[in-house]
């Protein structure tokens, strides 16, 4: 197990190194850098920056030297001090821009995820076990509709109806009077009053997709010889389903954690924008539009780290769940 | 057969599969009897319905398959004086007797031993689970019994192997574990559905030896499904030859090999190579292929491939089942007690 873990961590480090390179290249693709942007800004205000000032600023932000040195500076700053650089747009360190939104993003996403799983799992199992029943056809049809409708469209429909019926747009996660208030019951209730909209909007597609994954996995497993063999030795249907095909069908479910974690962090970008959610998604969109490259790069870098960690978590879970993975190499 | 009442009596079993192209009658009126302590071999080509027959006994036929009619009488309780006989097919799916039959009174082993075990659980876990369903052993006692059973089916080092996963064992070892699971509740019948087909020849021989010695030890009946006539000669007391969903010939094993009646049986036996005799000559084969069960030939379903088919008779009328006495039957017009076509060949 320790060796398995060690191997995974090593792969992880290598992957992150490669990702950091790519992200750095992306950051440096647009012409100019933070200092040229500053220079332009000061020029607009009529205060020119001398070549000496520019040079000093470059040294200060680690922008002097060639690309390799710059990469080294950027990389060590992140690795050693957790310093993600400066955001042009907000004019403060990237960390300070991201941190306050991280909590909200995680809250919205985690609750949505839990509800999605809680709904999708039983529906998927039912739909597989009772294949070709009326319930299965109903679930499958609704699932196709849910999967085919983009979530931003659902968000727009929501906004349309809430404006025509209630005369207000459901935006953000709190009412103005509660937003800056300290946490108390009122604020919590207000949060739940707002939370159900992004939950439904983001969750619909997720539930539909997961139901299909679980249904197909389980249908595959239900036809395996070991199911017939277990039935032939008298295992009752309930335990048979739980102990045999469902356990195997769980594996692909677990392996989705790898790509669900980053989704959790960004939230749905377009939906976040439409419903003005205080998540990272809209920030990333803004940073890309205004070429705020350190901010965009940092968000992408954080997402990559989370993806790699998510993959590690699902690998570990899979190894724990599936002895074929855990013991495969010592056959 | 002049024995007492058979342990298991299948009569008029019809099992079919609904496919997009139509209804496939995989088993089309099969009558079979398994006698206590004896071995019945069911032999036939792929797709003749022998596996489906075996699966129908424990009601394991899955969608889109359906058992349409027939009875399967289980006389185990009557024979050992513990209860009444009943028709397995008439049981409610939730009936406790069905649960006791599966794995308790009837053990079953399958063609692909490794695929018949869940790869995520140790063989011990799956064996102990079955033991605890059919006996009231405690967890600890069940584990001890499991190790004992693994030892009895010839798995070396059972203390360690009890915690092995199926993928860590060879196919032969997996089949031994399956046999241990099938025998854990001392069944009076073992159904073996081509248990050696996926194994190599030496492993095959060892598994057959094991089944034979366990049968002698436990006094159980065995219903052995195979396409291998060599296995039949080695194991069987009685043989049923199946072709396209019907039993075409029934005989004791010696009679079958000495004096096959049905042209299909004759052709099957002729196509088995004999060391020495067949050197340097082509092995006889049965012309053509097994017809698609969707388009079953009219009359005798074997007539298009039969060397002795009678035109105007075999291709029109269903062949009669001729009883030779002593449990010997053949479903062929050649032995029908009618004068005009006696001995005639087309």
Summary keywords:
heterodimer; A: 331 residues; mainly alpha; MetI-like fold; 2 domains; two-stranded antiparallel sheet; globular; B: 346 residues; alpha/beta; Rossmann fold; 8-stranded mixed β-sheet; 4-stranded antiparallel β-sheet; 11 helices; 12 strands; disordered C terminus; MetI-like (chain A); transmembrane (chain A); transport (chain A)
Describe the structure.
The complex is a heterodimer of chains A (about 325) and B (about 350). With about 325 residues, chain A is mostly helical. Chain A has 2 domains: about 90 residues, no CATH class; about 210 residues, Orthogonal Bundle (MetI-like fold). Helices cover about 80% and strands about 0% of the residues of chain A. In chain A, strands 1-2 form a two-stranded antiparallel ribbon. The model of chain A has no long low-confidence stretch (mean pLDDT about 80). Chain B is an alpha/beta fold and about 350 residues long. Chain B has a domain of about 190 residues: Rossmann fold, CATH 3.40.50. Chain B contains 11 helices and 12 strands. In chain B, β9 and β10 form a beta hairpin. In chain B, α4 packs parallel to α7 and α5 packs across α7. Chain B is globular and about 70 Å long. Classes of the chains: A mainly alpha (about 325), B alpha/beta (about 350). The interface between A and B is medium-sized, with 26 and 34 residues.
Reconstruct the topology from this structure.
The complex is a heterodimer of chains A (331) and B (346).
Chain A: H1 2-28, H2 34-44, H3 51-61, H4 67-81, E1 86-87, E2 92-93, H5 94-129, H6 134-148, H7 151-166, H8 176-179, H9 185-222, H10 225-232, H11 237-243, H12 245-255, H13 257-266, H14 269-274, H15 280-289, H16 293-321, H17 323-327
Helix pairs in contact in A: 1-16, 5-6, 5-9, 5-13, 6-9, 7-9, 9-12, 12-16, 13-16, 15-16
Chain B: E1 8-19, E2 22-34, E3 39-43, H1 50-57, E4 65-74, H2 76-79, E5 86-87, H3 96-101, E6 106-109, H4 123-134, H5 139-152, H6 158-161, H7 171-183, E7 189-193, H8 201-218, E8 221-226, H9 229-235, E9 238-243, E10 246-252, H10 253-258, H11 263-270, E11 321-325, E12 328-331
Helix pairs in contact in B: 4-5, 4-7, 5-7, 7-8
